[in-house]
Amino acid sequence: MRILILEDTEGLGEAIRDQLQDEGYAVDWVMRIEAAESCLRSTRYDLLLLDLMLPDGSGLNFLQKLRKTSSFLPVIIMTAKDQIADRISGLNAGADDYLVKPFDLYEMTARVAAVARRYSGNPNPNIILGELRVNLADKTVCLKDQAIELTSREWAIFETFIQKPGQLLTRARLEDALYAFGAEIESNTIEVYISRLRKKLGKGCIETIRGMGYRMPQK
Amino acid sequence: MRPISLQKQLVLRLLIVVACLWVLGLVIATMQLNEELNKTFDSALQETAERILPLALVEIYNREESKLLQQLPALGAHKERLTYQVRNAANQVLLQSHTAQQHDFNLALRDGFESQDGYRVFTVSAVQGAYFIQVAEPLSHRREAVLHTLLIMAIPLLVLLPLCLLMAIFLVRQVINPVTQYGKQLALRGAGDLTPIIPEHLPLELEPMTQAVNQLMLRLQTALETERHFTANAAHELRTPLATMMAQTQRLEKTLSDEASRLKAGQLVVTLNHLVSLSDKLLQLAKADSSGLLTDKPENLSALLLLIVDEYVRSGKHDIRLQLPEQVLMACIDADAFYILAKNLIENAVKHGDANESIHVQLSNKGELRVVNACEPLSAEQLKRLHERFFRASSNTSGSGLGLAIVEALVKGIGAQLKFLSPATDSKRGFEAVIQLPIQ
Questions:
Q1: Do B304 and A102 touch (CB under 8 A)?
Q2: Does A87 touch chain B (CB under 8 A)?
Q3: Which residues pair with B115 in a beta bridge?
Q4: Which residues of A fall within a CB distance of 8 Å from B235?
Q5: B315 close contact with A: CB closer than 8 A
Q6: Domain assignment of residue B338, yes or no
Q7: Range of B396's domain?
Q8: Of B230, B264, B291, which closes a domain?
Q9: Number of domains in chain B
Q10: Domains of chain A with bracketed CATH
Q11: What is the pLDDT of residues B318-337, one digit of tens each?
Q12: Of B29, B137, B162, B328, which one's alpha carbon is 20 to 30 angstroms from that of A77?
């Protein structure tokens, strides 16, 4: 899952970025609206963490503009504005959640996960797909009641699939999910991880659609 | 000392002044009456003497024994008001009216009026001072006449005085009424309503007072606004550095490999959490203690409560059951004040309630907000002390002990009623906070 952070406070943005990266998300962190706009134009993000008071404008206006473009991007506002009127205007502008600073980093990641789940169409962190039982909150996978250990990179790819079962995912989309783990994505990286996942979860867990991408069958 | 009502004062003073003036009038009238009556009676006395004298002299001359006393009998039985006697120069009584014997007028034989032993006597001489007639009239007769007239004059006064009192009450009440209305208008205002008052039909003399009150309200509003801005700004300015500190410390804790250092970083996070919560609570308390918690525009309490509970539900850590009224509940309460109020109650329930049991939040049609959590029942002593600032019922839980004090200050500010119950209604355990909100 690829996340964009728009936060102008250096220490805070850095900590948020590091925390999300630790959780296995691919993260881009920018400090200005202009930079965020250029990121959104070039990359497909799964979530935006948005500060409201930014050096080059209001985060709220940016959100309103974003919502006018009929974007399906989930947005979590994180701000020091704690007045109820601010919350209401934030949520009314199209935010999916509202986090008031200061917040616990673990609560933030829980909220990121919750919003992502809601967007995937299933807010329940427990997903049952055939013989697979997945808990998105705990990041645990069970196959036929047997716990399966996944590395964080494997989980990043697997989570992308599990949140969109039955959907075709391109190689670039999967690469975005791995972006967090550095720049060493080579031409066969995705194949390597998919073959590892097939080995752990069974051959039929991910289908290859030749020339287009991959898909997790909806069982 | 209880202040005396303006109306009572006016009526009382008016009545005293009227009664005094009437009494003064009566006294002056009595004096005048006395003088006039005296003149009239004196004149009558003189006339009588002068009329009787020639007749008496004829009577005396016609007598065989002129020097013998002769008493004239009454023609019919009657009370004699005027008595007379005729004397000669040697002071011998020659003629008397029938009751004159009972009175002994030993006055010097000198022409004119004289008073003696309760009688007014007029003496007049004839035949070159050879004979004198003395006509006497009791002074009590005059006093009676004056008293009688006085009584006749006083009776209407006694009847009119209560009527005067009623009229005074009615008129004073009419004049005072706009002032009373103005007072009521002021008293009926919500604590947050600082708009100028434009009173109707208020006397001209009170205009400077209403202007002063309106100016005071304006100044108060400015001061309140400054205070509110300061609280909001202070909260905002504190939050970002605190957030950075907290996030960096949490990151530090996570990246440290040395167990002892990690423990220290963990403690730092706990302290920071406490600092964040304390600064939050102190700012909330500042808001709660400031007035202006009521607004002119009614807020939708149901929607606000839904938003607050939703925030807790989103965090996924707590099971909160919300029950909202069928109709939309509106109240002129500042949205932030209500938010802080409800949040503190829920936070309290989360902190002190049994972790595995749900918290019930209920808003009734009548504006009763209930927050119930499961826990061991509190003692009466603990319940009583819950209102105190920095008091914590349990030393095991973290917290500043300010949550319920904030709730209490807010409840007072919005004119609501607060009750703490433990055990909760229809239960043997639990804690229940009930607030009766001033709904529209």
A1: no
A2: yes
A3: B120
A4: 80, 82
A5: yes
A6: yes
A7: 292-436
A8: B291
A9: 3
A10: 2-120 (3.40.50.2300), 126-215 (1.10.10.10)
A11: 788 888 888 888 888 888 88
A12: B328
Closest residue to B239, CB basis, from A84, A98, A101: A101
| Candidates B238, B250, B275, B278, partner chain A, best to mutate (most A CBs within 10 A) | B250
Residues in chain B with CB shorter than 8 Å from the CB of A81 are 236
Residues B251 and A19 sit within 8 Å (Cβ to Cβ): yes
Residues B140 and B258 in one domain: no
ipTM surpasses 0.95: no
Summarize pLDDT for B279-323 with one digit per residue, the tens: 888 888 877 877 678 887 888 888 899 988 888 877 667 788 888
Q: Does A83 touch chain B (CB under 8 A)?
A: yes
